[in-house]
Structures are given as C-alpha cells and as structure tokens.
Amino acid sequence: MTENRVRVAHLAVYDTLADWEYGHLAVELRTGRFTGVPYEIRTVAETLDPITTMGGLRVLPDLTLSDLDPADSGLLILTGSGFWDDGGGEPFLDAARAFLDAGVPVAGICGATSGLARAGLLDERRHTSAAPEYLAATGYRGAAHHVDERAVADHGVVTAGPQSAVQFASATLGLLGLATPTRLEAYEGVFHRADPAAYPILMAG
Length: 205
What we know:
This protein is α/β, with parallel strands linked by helices. The protein is built from eight helices and nine strands. The chain has a single domain (7-179), classed as Rossmann fold. Helix 1 (19-31) runs parallel beside helix 6 and helix 6 packs antiparallel against helix 7. InterPro entries: Class_I_gatase-like, DJ-1/PfpI.
C-alpha cells in the first residue's frame, strides 16, 4: 500500500451487530479529525446479503470474507453480536487469524473477545473483556493474561468490554500509531469523562 493511498479498515458485519460498540472508532478512523490520517471503512460479511444490526439498521456489505485480503487492509474490527455466545463466528475468526499472521491488527470488543478466546488468539496476549468469568466459560487457556482494564492492546490485538467503546477506540488508535498517549488521554477525557479541561488538549494536535 503506497503512502498516498487512503488507508483501509475493515468492519465485520453480521446480524445483531452491536451498533454502539464500533461507532467512536469508525468515526475517528474515517474522518481522521484528531489524527490527520483518514481511513476508508469497508464492511465485510459472509455474503453480500444485507445484515440487520441490533439497532435495526440494514447494512449492505462491501465485500465478502472470501475476497478479504489482509494485504489490502490496516485493521479488522470485530464487534459484539448474539452469535458469539452461541459459538458462532468461525469464518470471522479465521479471518482474524489470517490478519494477525500477516501482521495486521485486529480489534475485538464485547462478544468478539469470546470468539478470539475460543480461537486461541488471547492465550498468550494481555487482554480484557466484559468479565474474566465470561472468557473463562470458553475454556480458553489465557486466563492468566486477563487484566482488569477498560481496553487493552497487546501484540496486534485490541480487546474491550461492551461498556468501553470510547476506550476501545482510543486503544486502537494508539495501537495504529495515530495519536500520542497525551492526545488519547484527552480523547477519553472529552468523550468518556466529559472533562472540559481535556478539550483544548484534544484540539491542540
């Protein structure tokens, strides 16, 4: 990918996709308003049939998993959905493994963290989720690496619980090298803590 091309992030979409979990991240990537580096957001699904999110929005995928190539992407985003707790999502986990093998980051929030755990992708990485018990139920072997934080980035994987969409965005932007820790702290100050003192720091660049 040449530097003059817009960078691309792929958002996995499927029925009952949790609308609130990817919003902050998608907006900051697409606009680049606080990073100066805009991304194109492309949706990827198992088929090109429309999916319906948890909030009732109908989304028409841009491409299928069979056409997804990590070499054409800078990030794969996996969000919550009812199918993760039913043991589903294997094709998306295969994609996540391919991305990580290619050195391309994966960001998973809420139920997607259980999928990543089932796939063994959290066994050797620091990570978090809704609760340690939630991941323990998957039978994974990474419990010793679970940490009590809102979002965690380690060895190319970002994880977060469903209550941490702002921190999920911040940790992912940090992993991608798009903002300094000071600016990311200000981002969380504005959008999570409603701290007016953080606003000028965020806008200062």
